Amino acid sequence: MKTSLAGFAPGNIISDAVFTNNTTMTEAQIQAFFDSKVKTCRGGIDEDGKPIICLKDYRTDSVDRPADSYCKGYTGAKGESAARIIHRVAQSCNINPQVLIVMLQKEQSLVTHTWPSAWRYEKALGQGCPDDAPCDPKYVGFFYQIYGAARQMQLYMEGRYFTWYAPGNTWNVLYHPNRGCGTAPVYMANKATSALYYYTPYQPNAAALRAGYGTGDSCSSYGNRNFYNYFTDWFGSTQYPDGPIVNAGRDIYLITNGTAHHITADVWAQYRAAFGDPVPTSSAHIASLAQGAKATLFLHDQGAGTVAYLDGGKTHRFPTCDLVVAWGGDCQAALTRLDSEDFTQPGAGAEMTARASVAGDARLFLLEGRELVPYESAAALQAWGHETTGFYVATMPAATAARYRALPTRFVPGQFVVATGATRVYLPTADGELHYLPSFDTARSLGLPTSVKRVSAEAVKSNRVTTTLGPFVLCDAKTYFGAGGALHRVDGNYGFTPVALDATTCGRLRIADDTEKVLFVKASADPAVYTPIQGRFSHVANPATLSILNGAGSIRIVSVTSGELSRLPKGEQIRTDIGFVTTPSDGRVYLSDAGRLVYLTSWTIADALGMPRIVVPISDKAAAAMSKEGNVTTLVECYGRLYRGDGGVLRRVSDAGGEMVTILSSANCATLRFG
User: Fold this and answer.
1) For the segment 492-540, what is each residue's pLDDT rounded down to a tens digit?
2) Is the dihedral of CA 278, 279, 284, 288 positive or negative?
3) What angle do CA 615, 616, 619 make, to 5 degrees?
4) SS3 158
5) What is the DSSP letter of 76?
6) Is the entire prediction scored with pTM above 0.70?
């Protein structure tokens, strides 16, 4: 029970919206409420010899009532329950059934009475029953009381015949039927409050307000005080429908169409922006309503049929159901259905699009089919061919975004990035890969701009770090070597792993008008020429080797800067008159020795001799000028003496013992280690 009437305003006891909200309770909810108030009915016979029946069990016949400008009429029936009559009358006369329930309590205590006499039902609401005269016969009986009082309330609010408490004016209202108790001015804020005063024309004095539900003094009246007390205790605020958001303790609800939808933390910010702070209500009031699904950001105007998204304090209409689905909604099921008055309260914003932002994430997102694709910025979105102006960008909750498959972030092609708080610089590509940039000199060699954009950690970690950016890249499945800010087409990758660049990045690079059948490089101030072999650049020992490596045709050498040359990984010096070689048409490995080719049957033989596993490709023409003689063996002759290769070292032996011996030139022998 209340101990204080804080919040009671004599001129605004209940708002018009609450008073006329006929959707607050279903018949079943009214019955459940009555059941909860009286667990056990005493029963028996009253003082007039009539059965004692509590309200939860009460049934009576109803009669037909014609429709008029105040109610829609009523079709009578036999043995209707009190709950059914109240619900049907509320719908017919557009009165909140909670108002009728409270009036039953304040007039005859019927809601909580455990042994009500039959006469209490005869004048249940006091309709047509003045304090100083018998009840008007046409209003005697429970049904007549409920229908008559509800209709009378609409007649009061109409204001044609009852004008002395008309809203928008200040009136002197009595404290008590005893006029000697005086009056006080009351500004009537609305029609519903005026109707209550027409029904009970007294306001509570200070003593009545101090007493809560108790007795004040001889000048106290209690009807309108008790109406406020019971309504707020049982059903919550008498004002809340002026804003459909309420809170019962820490739980917040959207109440619309007589249904309570729990507003969870992930969508509360948007509801607050649209509808404002919640109005306090009671848990009992929430329990008395139909319990709907959790409130979503997908709203449906049940009057106009519009489906909209709640964002930024406004509703944003979806042009198609496909877009609703793309945003994670459902045009049929996953909608929060509002009456038109609640739906239009926030106001309409721009139409929904496929553009989205996500709470706590600096990226922009584009709904592409059923995918939520992240773009690092508006510039990235535009670089990928999407318009960025004239499109509303709504906010998607992080929990909703998490339901989509995680996709790599798309960046501005060719733009180096670094995550906030980090130092490693990456080149993103269209396939979601990040290529580490070891030095800006590499970027300059390839002709990439050296500016770096600092981006969010989320943007970087959504992509996978793969290779390190080097001098070899792939554009349109063709291999290029970067030098001097241009790309030079080459045949093969020479043991390097080229980084595949997307078409947009490749389109921004300068491709030289040449194709190097064999890649040779040299710095302008250095006569040394290098060529890539098995992932390293090896110094070409002499012009004869250069000619053999090049094959027929003119020799082309790509100029690099001294810095570029110094950063290239270096290998052993190359001479084609020694060491291992191969040709395009043959593919097998031979030892080049004094103008002849000796076949290498196994790398284990080369390992035993201590010869490095480096194979130099030579032209078929160069190979054709040399004879092919035998196989390489672990038993060799160097400088006229016999040696056996063992673990990479040559050890002296006295004789061949009938084994095959490979005679090596002094040039090849000079590369070996003797033990």
Assistant:
1) 889 999 999 988 889 889 999 888 888 999 998 888 999 999 899 999 9
2) negative
3) 135
4) helix
5) -
6) no
Q: What are the pLDDT digits (tens) for 350-409?
A: 999 999 999 889 999 999 888 999 999 999 999 888 988 889 999 998 888 988 998 999
pLDDT tens sequence across 96-115: 999 999 999 999 999 999 99
Strands (E), 347-425: 355-358, 361-368, 371-375, 394-396, 416-419
Q: Strands 355-358 and 452-455, how do they pair?
A: unpaired
Helical pair 82-93 and 27-37, crossing angle rounded to 10 deg: 130
Query: Does 283 have pLDDT greater than 80?
Result: no
Contacts of 95 by beta carbon, 8 Å cutoff, 6+ apart = 19, 20, 22, 89, 150, 153, 154
CA atoms within 13 A on the CB side of 76: 10
Structure tokens at 290: 């139909």
Tell me the C-alpha distance between 234 and 238, whole Å: 11
Q: Which residues contact 89 (CB under 8 A, 6 or more apart)?
A: 71, 74, 95, 100, 146, 147, 150
In contact, 95 and 20? CB cutoff 8 Å: yes
**100 closest CA partner among 44, 575, 7, 110:** 110
2: pLDDT strictly greater than 50: no
Identify which of 18, 34, 16 has the alpha carbon closest to the alpha carbon of residue 258.
Answer: 18
pLDDT in tens, 242-276: 458 888 889 999 988 778 899 999 899 999 999 98
In the Cβ-directed half-sphere of 589, how many Cα atoms lie within 13 Å?
A: 15
